[in-house]
Design goal:
- It is a single chain.
- The protein is of the alpha/beta class.
- The protein has two domains: 132 residues, Aspartate Aminotransferase, domain 1, CATH 3.90.1150; 238 residues, Aspartate Aminotransferase, domain 2 (3-Layer(aba) Sandwich).
- The chain has 13 helices and twelve strands.
- Helix 1 packs antiparallel against helix 9.
Length: 381
């Protein structure tokens, strides 16, 4: 089985597992406990916080641990609105965001808040001019993802930040797909909030981060005891947090090499598929995209049909095209990019990772191409 679904989740890095084990076996105490074992657990918690802070070039006190990207996104969106006592206001986002952004925004609309969904071009890049025109006196937050999970397109974060800064509006970015694949500095980009998850960067599932810029007050989403300095109630998931810290440290050490390796494998995969299937269409920006992501449509072949044939040979996602077999629903991302419906239904997302070899990449391409030929041959009968 060849795994080409790293945008869905990544395997744990062996060094992450090694770092986590002592906190599953020996250092199991509650980090809030005052005794020696509790202090040892607290050391692990704060070391991980320091590792994450160094990874994104933030202050340690600006890092808050969560259960993952969904919690982080909900925390930012609800924390800057109803949890802050506001009963109305305006939020700006894009039309291609992850459901963990779109769902809480739909909830806020039900509560009386106004949301502007920025259009994107055929590459999936937000329209900066529309953003400028959309900001009002009542605008509380601009939330734009750093990199799209389906097509890999990167957003112009620095340009967006310049606009929000001039207007005095808070800026949040969902960095789930960006982190670990490309360098990210909160100092350079200047976001007010950054959210991401451990399992997208060779860390464990069930843990994530909110970066909250110093000086900004964000009320807790989860109310309880004074964990995370009162910013997130609930005993910290210490083994997972330690794992995330190690994953962040590893990513920081090798980010440039990983970028080159990921792009080399992705480009090789793309070349092989386009050589044998020249009618295929690649979605997203060809340069300004994640180094590992290939969103590609094979005209005349349904994505789910292709997946069924190779499901025990190659793992990849058809989530970039449909939301469930036979649903007939087209990805909201591809729809926003104005991809024709028939082409959208033929789209798959292939994503390489650190542990994907060139040999596996070639074998994966061959298996996909054989399945495509089989499907098209059956059409002629």
């Amino acid at each position: 089985m060849i795994y080409l679904d790293y945008n869905a989740t990544t395997p744990l890095h062996p060094k992450v597992i090694q770092a986590m084990l002592p906190y599953l076996e020996t250092h199991f105490a509650n980090p809030s406990s005052p005794h020696r074992w509790g202090k040892k657990a607290k050391e692990g918690l704060e070391k991980a916080r320091s590792q994450v802070a160094q990874f994104i070039e933030a202050r340690e006190e600006e890092v808050v641990f969560t259960s993952g990207g969904t919690e982080g996104n909900n925390h930012v969106l609800l924390g800057t609105t109803i949890l802050s006592g506001k009963k109305k206001g305006h939020i700006i986002t894009s039309s291609i965001e992850h459901p963990s952004i779109l769902a809480p925004l739909a909830f806020l609309e039900e509560q009386g808040f106004h949301v502007t969904y920025l259009p994107v071009d055929h590459y999936g890049i937000v329209d900066i001019e529309v953003l400028k025109k959309s900001i009002r006196k009542s605008t509380l937050l601009v939330s734009i993802m750093a990199a799209n999970n389906e097509v890999g397109t990167l957003q112009p974060l620095r340009e967006i930040r310049e606009i929000t800064q001039k207007k005095g509006v808070l800026f949040h970015t969902d960095g789930a797909q960006w982190m670990g694949k490309l360098p990210f500095s909160v100092k350079e980009i200047g976001v007010d909030f950054l959210t991401f998850a451990g399992h997208k960067m060779y860390g464990p599932k069930g843990v994530g981060v909110i970066y909250i810029r110093k000086g900004i007050k964000l009320p807790p989403l989860l109310k309880g005891a004074s964990h995370e300095k009162g910013r997130r109630g609930g005993t910290e998931n210490l083994p997972a947090i330690v794992g995330l810290g190690k994953a962040a440290s590893l990513a920081k050490q090798s980010i440039k090499k990983n970028m080159r390796d990921l792009q080399k494998k992705r480009d090789f995969l793309e070349t092989l598929l386009l050589k044998d299937f020249p009618e295929a269409t690649v979605h997203g920006h060809r340069e300004n995209r994640l180094p590992n992501t290939l969103s590609i449509a094979f005209p005349g072949v349904l994505a789910m049909e292709l997946m069924e044939i190779v499901q025990n040979q190659v793992a990849f996602s058809a989530g970039a095209a449909c939301h469930g077999k036979g649903s007939g629903k087209i990805s909201h991302v591809l729809k926003a990019m104005k991809v024709p419906k028939t082409l959208a239904k033929s789209t798959v997302r292939l994503s390489t990772g650190q542990f994907t070899s060139i040999e596996e990449t070639e074998k994966g391409a061959q298996k996909i191409l054989r399945a495509l030929r089989k499907i098209l041959k059956s059409r002629k009968k």
